[in-house]
């Protein structure tokens, strides 16, 4: 399983069973009791100094524990938060590789971590137990913000435009030969020549209502007419890039292999797929005590985009660079921190 996927592959996209929720909670409890991670974070992985704005006097020396999920994008996101808070003068403890989305969530709810970055769709469907996503990005964020504050006193800061959701992709040759740019174009191709639309996908995507069956219904094509080889995630990217087995392949929109393999992502012009915008989440008591944190982290809203995350993910997953170095380089380039 490639590390660029979210922590437990598609867990943020599926509603976990009661058993899985219980198991994840027990894992967190065991880790805390045994002292093997959640009760003691590490130090910030690389030194940083303040940017032109300097430190924030009210935050200097304040202890903060930053959590993150153990896949490439999750680790990078947590390092971005860590470096900005450290540059502001905070005493940062690093817990950037928690094993699984549910472990991250439980650690935040229980106060083992103070802050991190999370996806709106993940919270709405996996943590808050809703069956249907809200496909308007602002509406989805507002719904999560309100429900999580009321139910758990977890605060959601304004979201970035990073949206790590499903899509299909193809190589450049297929994009030119088929002329497909949007899923409406894809549906037209299926309806006219389904054998020209061979689409590789994961097993789960092929049966999920917010996957293949629902996509076909939303865009008006018969999914039974399309050849759909079932493959593991990592194989899909490579097979789509080669183009012999897959004309189209299921992908995640901010996966670094999209750019690394020069794949063309299809536009979801009817906004069928759920929205998974990345945003800072923080315990209510903590941000109430240290409201300056919001201003320190506010630049992430403007500078984090799908294109930026794809580039950073690619540097880690394709080029083999260290995620901490990638995150720090980005913030240095943006003039928000210095390299310590």
Automatic annotation (TrEMBL):
Pfam families: OpuAC
InterPro entries per the UniProt record, alphabetical: ABC_Gly_betaine_transp_sub-bd
Superkingdom of the source species: Bacteria
Gene3D superfamilies recorded: Osmoprotection protein (prox), domain 2 (3.40.190.120), Periplasmic binding protein-like II (3.40.190.10)
Domain ABC-type glycine betaine transport system substrate-binding, chain residue ranges per copy: 63-331
Name of the protein in question: Glycine betaine ABC transporter substrate-binding protein
